[in-house]
Amino acid sequence: AQRVTQPEKLLSVFKGAPVELKCNYSYSGSPELFWYVQYSRQRLQLLLRHISRESIKGFTADLNKGETSFHLKKPFAQEEDSAMYYCALRFSGNTGKLIFGQGTTLQVKP
Amino acid sequence: NAGVTQTPKFQVLKTGQSMTLQCAQDMNHEYMSWYRQDPGMGLRLIHYSVGAGITDQGEVPNGYNVSRSTTEDFPLRLLSAAPSQTSVYFCASRELGRELFFGEGSRLTVL
Prior knowledge:
The structure holds two protein chains of two kinds. By secondary structure, chain A is an all-beta fold. In chain A, 0% of the residues lie in helices and 44% in strands. Chain A is built from no helices and eleven strands. In chain A, strands 2, 5, 6, 9, 10 and 11 form a six-stranded mixed sheet that branches. In chain A, strands 3-8-7 form a three-stranded antiparallel sheet, with no helix packed on it. Chain A is globular. By secondary structure, chain B is an all-beta fold. In chain B, strands 2, 4, 5, 6, 9, 10 and 11 form a seven-stranded mixed sheet that branches. Chain B has a four-stranded antiparallel sheet with strand order 1-3-8-7, with no helix packed on it. Chain A binds chain B through residues 6, 9, 34, 36, 43-46, 49, 86, 94-95, 97-103, and chain B through 31, 33, 35, 40-45, 48, 50, 56, 58-59, 90, 92, 96-97, 99-100, 102-105.
């Protein structure tokens, strides 16, 4: 069955430390992977997508088809990165539905 | 632009009551969807639609009905509310092939 798994409910790091939020997926087709973020009192919003291979707010994520992973990384965490992060998988085709993982709360301590 | 608008923001129901969560978007997006957010469960897809007159089930459709009579609106109906439907509900829309835009959420409590 298609699923997205985020094994960590909570990740707590100190400011300046590296961050890696894990995401694994199970999908038989060609996956499109995304990271969405929900800051306190804000709407869920797109952080980045694997297709664009961009770095947003210092975050990057590489799709590893061999390991079926799409981990989110940042070399130096900032307090403003504290938020809930969701990994998401879109099914094949532009009309494809989007499913999410369980979410990981990132807490960056001063 | 208002984006994606959900009403009501908060609602308390008794078991067995019915209600409709409203969702409207003004971006002319073809795709609309409903999710529920529960602690430890993340966001789970309830129903989605790829255009007016077309709807399909997501991961957790039981207990919910949807319809899509216009491009702008995608209401979610609970016909007989149960405590297990206590959750935060999010509506989201997008152009086909693009990112999702979310509403602010509707917090529903079923007693």
